[in-house]
């Protein structure tokens, strides 16, 4: 989780770059990385990642952003594989099968010994850079008795609204759809109808939704189990909580891959190696507000202790690829009533 609509704290101070250094970077090449908006925001991990990587490679790291992970895949489709990206960072396992099948990516060629995610990792096209679990985040000053299950949440007083994200444009929105699908299977239409009653609005991405929540316009939002850690560590506020659902929580594993264009850029391999090093991983927890996939060089703050649920849910990428369009159509058919 990342808290994508807010400032990050503890930003690295970036030294002024001299003209000579700028020229040297240009001579040593440029790496173009497509990612999502919040990654490159001032409060996100992007500025720190850029400074750390450029100091290592003496090159120019250029980020190009889109609204969210699904929007990244949509952009690749629109560009037909002829875009500027050497690397795409910010897809998740719900999108990797489609991205691979479209032929946009090449094998990353990395060993996987440095990465560790629940359930293991063996994808030869994508490397994980963080992971987390979706959750209903609520304001404890408004909701004193939070739901303890998805069923209880859906059946609760519809006057306590939630803001969610669109599964067509947002990876959290897609995650919620798959979370409900995993719990209810083919009988999910009734669950969707109840969700529709509980929903104040559906936003294109995470940032818009979380902004409505923190502005006090709605008492609940779809986010991550790691979201409360931001408020505790950055704001010293503990009113925002993650509801724990007995059915389990849907997991998101975010990944990066080298494009067919990036295969010709030697910096692509250098970046992938850097991504699973402590230099990158140490930045993730308290800027992207997700869990690291490799050694950070330090223990996670205790604020993250409740971020890992007892039961994790995750559909296979090939299942999502085969069914996503149909499930989105079914979702829209109910949620637009």
Give Rg in angstroms: 20 Å
Structural class: alpha/beta
Number of extended strands? 12
Distance between the termini: 30 Å
| Share in β-strands | 15-25%
Please summarize the sheet with the most strands.
Answer: 12 strands, mixed
What is the count of DSSP helices, taking H or I runs of 4+ residues? 13
Mean pLDDT: 91
Helix fraction by DSSP (H/I, runs of at least 4): 25-40%
Order of helices and strands: HEHHEHEHEEHEHHEHEHEEHHEEH
Protein described:
The chain is an alpha/beta fold and 337 residues long. Helices cover 37% and strands 20% of the residues. The protein has 13 helices and twelve strands. Strands 1, 2, 3, 4, 5, 6, 7, 8, 9, 10, 11 and 12 form a twelve-stranded mixed sheet that branches. Helix 7 packs across helix 13 and helix 8 crosses helix 13. The longest helix has 19 residues. The protein is globular, with a radius of gyration of 20 Å. The two termini are 30 Å apart. The N terminus is likely disordered.
List keywords for this structure.
37% helix; 12 strands; 20% strand; alpha/beta
Secondary structure layout plus pairing:
Blueprint: H1 19-28, E1 30-36, H2 37-40, H3 46-57, E2 60-66, H4 69-79, E3 87-92, H5 96-101, E4 105-106, E5 126-139, H6 150-155, E6 162-165, H7 171-184, H8 189-198, E7 199-203, H9 206-214, E8 220-224, H10 227-235, E9 240-242, E10 249-259, H11 266-275, H12 278-281, E11 291-292, E12 312-313, H13 317-335
Parallel strand pairs: 1-2, 1-3, 6-7, 6-8, 10-12
Antiparallel strand pairs: 3-10, 4-10, 5-8, 5-9, 5-10, 5-11
Helix pairs in contact: 7-13, 8-13
């Amino acid at each position: 989780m990342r808290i994508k609509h807010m400032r990050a704290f503890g930003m690295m101070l970036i030294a002024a770059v001299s003209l000579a250094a700028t020229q040297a970077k240009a001579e040593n090449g440029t790496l173009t990385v497509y990612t999502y908006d919040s990654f490159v925001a001032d409060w996100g991990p992007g500025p720190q990642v850029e400074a750390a990587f450029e100091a290592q490679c003496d090159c120019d790291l250029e980020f190009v952003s889109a609204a969210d992970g699904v929007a990244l895949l949509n952009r690749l489709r629109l560009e037909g594989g002829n875009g500027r990206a050497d690397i795409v960072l910010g897809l998740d396992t719900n999108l990797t099968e489609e991205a691979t099948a479209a032929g946009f990516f090449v094998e990353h060629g990395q060993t996987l010994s440095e990465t560790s995610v629940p359930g293991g990792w063996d994808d030869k096209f994508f490397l994980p850079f963080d992971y987390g679990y979706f959750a209903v985040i609520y304001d404890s000053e408004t909701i004193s008795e939070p739901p303890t299950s998805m069923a209880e949440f859906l059946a609760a007083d519809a006057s306590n609204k939630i803001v969610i994200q669109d599964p067509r444009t947002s990876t959290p929105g897609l995650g919620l759809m798959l979370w409900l699908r995993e719990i209810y299977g083919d009988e999910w239409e009734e669950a969707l109808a109840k969700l529709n009653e509980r929903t104040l609005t559906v936003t294109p991405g995470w940032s818009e939704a979380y902004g409505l929540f923190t502005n006090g316009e709605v008492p609940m939002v779809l986010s991550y189990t790691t979201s409360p850690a931001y408020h505790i560590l950055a704001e010293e506020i503990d009113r925002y909580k993650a509801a724990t659902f007995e059915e389990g929580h849907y997991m998101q594993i975010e990944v990066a891959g080298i494009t067919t264009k990036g295969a010709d850029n030697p910096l692509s391999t250098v970046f992938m190696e850097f991504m699973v090093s402590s230099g990158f991983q140490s930045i993730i927890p308290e800027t992207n507000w997700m869990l690291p996939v490799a050694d950070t060089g330090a223990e996670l703050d205790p604020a993250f202790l409740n971020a890992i649920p007892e039961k994790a849910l995750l559909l296979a990428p090939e299942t999502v690829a085969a069914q996503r369009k149909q499930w989105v159509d079914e979702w829209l058919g109910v949620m637009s009533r």
